[in-house]
Amino acid sequence: xxxxxxxxxxxxxxxxxxxxxxxxxxxxxxxxxxxxxxxxxxxxxxxxxxxxxxxxxxxxxxxxxxxxxxxxxxxxxxxxxxxxxxxxxxxxxxxxxxxxxxxxxxxxxxxxxxxxxxxxxxxxxxxxxxxxxxxxxxxxxxxxxxxxxxxxxxxxxxxxxxxxxxxxxxxxxxxxxxxxxxxxxxxxxxxxxxxxxxxxxxxxxxxxxxxxxxxxxxxxxxxxxxxxxxxxxxxxxxxxxxxxxxxxxxxxxxxxxxxxxxxxxxxxxxxxxxxxxxxxxxxxxxxxxxxxxxxxxxxxxxxxxxxxxxxxxxxxxxxxxxxxxxxxxxxxxxxxxxxxxxxxxxxxxxxxxxxxxxxxxxxxxxxxxxxxxxxxxxxxxxxxx
Length: 385
Known about the structure:
With 385 residues, the chain is mainly β. The two termini are 18 Å apart. The protein has strands at 8-9, 13-20, 26-30, 36-41, 44-49, 53-54, 56-57, 65-70, 76-81, 88-93, 100-101, 110-114, 120-125, 143-148, 155-158, 163-167, 173-177, 198-202, 207-210, 218-223, 229-235, 241-247, 255-256, 265-270, 276-280, 283-287, 294-295, 298-306, 310-311, 318-322, 328-333, 336-341, 347-349, 361-362, 368-371, 374-377.
């Protein structure tokens, strides 16, 4: 019997150009001047006016681009891209144009922030623990690095995980969220010894200060424009992730800024005009001081093409059965029914169901397949003979 498990061409949908209101925008960050918002959508970087409108696509590679961060003057955007295999750091003009690659290590580098002078970009990567580090060496526990915006040698800033960095206006201190273990960052209502906390790092004396020290998740800290107030995301009071704030000199004086229910707030940032920006339930919101959240209306025009899905399997087929005329073989792979010809390499997927199919057999007419709960047409009249 010829090999049954061949490359399977399953579906083809023609390309179409359309405008859509997008959902599940990721890695959202408002520009320092508060006029534009950068975000990741379907693996590309976009920007849109902070008041809403038509989004501009900035990257067009077939690779995955994510984690955009703005330069202090709002004229450049750094981001991560796997166009060369793993995530490397790139920088491009905020208005669009060619992106320059800044890192080349085999580890994945994820940008966090520009320094306040705009000369360096900080990023997280698991490259090399310091010799005196007590952390277990694993790629899950990153270090903090910086690289010149114009290209050059990478330098280690911290040997311990420091994610979502945000500098104060002086550039001498920065906020960050820590990482103590392996817990999924998207897990909700998590309380344990490894939940994240918000920390303050002083680069002049090397001191780290835990500002939250809370059993639940505290993450994504940002400074207010004056550097005296901290905003962050937290799961407190038995609720989902919301925005909270506290004075830098009195971290215990917490104040709830948002009161969303059910879904978590994600991807917090703030412009120099004091406008907060974040996502809720897959959409972008902005919120000015003393005002209610405002949803940002966004239009995206894309030319998406759903390509043929090519699936290759070399093992795992079950319930193989030959048709009565000996010209077709039905089999099951990963719970779905396929039929292949004994004379040609054509293979057709018959079922697309959430249920797991089993016990497939042919009827005497060679055209109908049966499982214990269903019957289906093979469509063999259209097959090459």
